[in-house]
Amino acid sequence: MNAPLIGHNKPLLEKAYRIRRTALQMGKVQGQGYIAQALDVADILAVAYFHAMNHKPDDPAWEGRDRFYLSIGHYAIALYAALIEAGVIAREEIENYGGDDSMLPMSGMAHYTPGMEITGGSLGQGLTVAVGACLALKRKKSKSFIYNLLSDGELGEGSTWEAAMSAAHWKLDNLIAIVDINNQQADGPSSNVLSSEPVDAKFRAFGWHTQRVNGNDMDALVAAFDAARNYDGAAPRVLVCDTLMGKGVPFLEAREKNHFIRVETDEWDKAIAMLDAEFGK
Amino acid sequence: MSLHKKIFAKADPTQPKLKTSAMIASIAGADQRTKAAPFGHALVELAKSRPDIVGLTADLAKYTDLHIFAQAYPDRFYQMGMAEQLLMGAAAGFAREGFVPFATTYAVFASRRAYDFICMAIAEESLPVKIVCALPGLTTGYGPSHQATEDLAIFRGLPNMTIVDPCDALDIEQATPAIVAHEGPVYMRLLRGNVPLVLDEYDYKFELGKAKMLREGSDVLFISSGLMTMRALEAAKKIEADRIDAAVLHCPTIKPLDVATIVKACSKPGRVVCVAENHTTNGGLGEAIAGALMRAGVHPSFRQIALPDEFLDAGALPTLHDRYGLSTEAICAAVKSWR
């Protein structure tokens, strides 16, 4: 079930739909991609880019911007879609996704793509870089926040917990981590590979302000993003978001769960059509 | 079956056994002139005019001389705790926001534990993080956990990384501003505490990327970096008595290598080229130079004075430098054996 189209968050549902659709178009170009993750995280990105963050699409290096750190480089297809919808990246680039000399490589890298703040891909690094950048922003007396998107599988990397301890030690109230809990990683369900639950309790024990929300419920996400930003305690904040892989395309939601989901050649258009139907287009 | 498999080296029964295998061992000879904490003081001086410099460490400020900076600029010093991956990631974060961070720890921890962070968060984007590490090569008797015998091999493989191995206090003082003036990431091997002062007796100035001839000689050409330059200079003086005339080319920048100067020096006929390095034979200055000479078509008689491809013993540092061939006496004996 999709969240109901209610109230003031209705425009964000439209944005999330557009992010999903653009990601599927990129997947179609390559014939592959981490599309199940892109579909699960689209609502989170819609709230980040069209509600929570200060940024200027025509000036992605604007000093006053909030920074979005993508630790999980393989989610780049989703972030590119968000950046295209935000107007940071030209829509024509969809056709070049993952190709030779493309500004949109399969795994996100900072010097390839405007709006891509860090080079992710080697998981467990993003939060450590975010700690340094948050300390640096405080040195500069900046009011900017750093949003760092992690995944549940990534929590297996011990460096994430070095950073989690450090962020609380330094009282980094300008750091908002978002953990996408889709319970899937390369070798299977995260709960089987290496249990990280209870994720929110772990962060709380480390000294973080924590919230656990349905990452595919727009109203809940908006409230959680607002609460994280507005919390007045001197602590880093984390949104632990439970999401559904393939969200928004029923046959992908139902497909056997895989880190790298199987999509047949003729299924991309079908997926786009189903998504359009779901959102009443 | 015993789990204790260590076979002890045969000690010379005529020599007293040295007793200290302490982590912090001085490389200064008893009668050598020294300067205290040259890196720490140089960084403090530089930071006066560079407000963008910050210092980060992983619970080793005192042991990397960064405590001098911390005392002078407490609000620009960040104690990151015993977490080297975090240290390097956080340094990258500071660099992203326009700062020039110095990140200090021991060479083993930077090169072994934090390598992926240095590779992907720092070097891949050529961020201006200056990684300064104590206990390079064999400079502690504490054993393999703290002996970074392969750090140069590890970092030589890393694109964008500049590698510096200074010889003495003067070299460190001059290299510190030079690595800040350089825009990209740098790995600098650090001698800390009371550091010998040697190069002020020579017409020498540190220049990043340059090898400098400290003395000429017609029989042997030592090419060396780090503390081995000091040892090569001492050895060159001693073997004069054996009528061996040795040149010493100091090569403190390991990468990028000053190929032009090295090839020119090695092209002079009749000299044995001997690379002396505080590092395993594998992948350090010796092999870097050997490769450069092969590519240049220059084929002198070539020797390496370096550490063996082994996990080294614990023990007193002078004992170990003798055992593994890095002491002045060991160098002299090696050179004489080539005649």
Overview of the structural elements:
The complex is a heterodimer of chains A (281) and B (339). Chain A has 281 residues and is an alpha/beta fold. Chain A has one domain: 3-Layer(aba) Sandwich (Rossmann fold), CATH 3.40.50.970. In chain A, 42% of the residues lie in helices and 10% in strands. Chain A contains ten helices and five strands. A five-stranded parallel beta sheet of chain A has the order 1-2-3-5-4, sandwiched between helices. Chain B has two domains: 163 residues, 3-Layer(aba) Sandwich (Rossmann fold), CATH 3.40.50; 129 residues, 3-Layer(aba) Sandwich (Rossmann fold), CATH 3.40.50. In chain B, the strands form three sheets. A seven-stranded mixed beta sheet of chain B has the order 3-2-4-5-7-6-12, sandwiched between helices. In chain B, strand 2, helix 2 and strand 3 form a beta-alpha-beta unit. In chain B, helix 3 packs parallel to helix 5 and helix 9 packs across helix 10. Chain B is globular and about 55 Å long. The chains are: A alpha/beta (281), B alpha/beta (339).
Features:
heterodimer, A: 281 residues, alpha/beta, Rossmann fold, five-stranded parallel β-sheet, 10 helices, 42% helix, 10% strand, globular, B: 339 residues, 2 domains, seven-stranded mixed β-sheet, five-stranded mixed β-sheet, 34% helix
Q: What is the name of the CATH class of the largest domain in chain B?
A: Alpha Beta
Q: What is the fold named in CATH at topology level of the largest domain in chain B?
A: Rossmann fold
Number of domains of chain B: 2
Q: Going by CATH, what is the homologous superfamily of chain A?
A: Thiamin diphosphate (ThDP)-binding fold, Pyr/PP domains
Largest sheet of chain B: 7 strands, mixed
**Highest-level CATH class of chain A:** Alpha Beta
Tell the overall outline of chain A: globular
CATH topology of chain A: Rossmann fold
Strand content of chain A: 5-15%
CATH superfamily of the largest domain in chain B: Thiamin diphosphate (ThDP)-binding fold, Pyr/PP domains
Order of helices and strands of chain A: HHEHHEHEHHEHEHH
Helix content of chain B: 25-40%
The rounded distance between the terminal residues' Cα atoms of chain B is 46 Å
Helix and strand sequence of chain B: EHEHEHEHHEHEHEEEEHEEHEHEHH
Q: Percent range for helical residues of chain A?
A: 40-55%
Architecture (CATH level 2) name of the largest domain in chain B: 3-Layer(aba) Sandwich
Beta-strand segment tally of chain A = 5
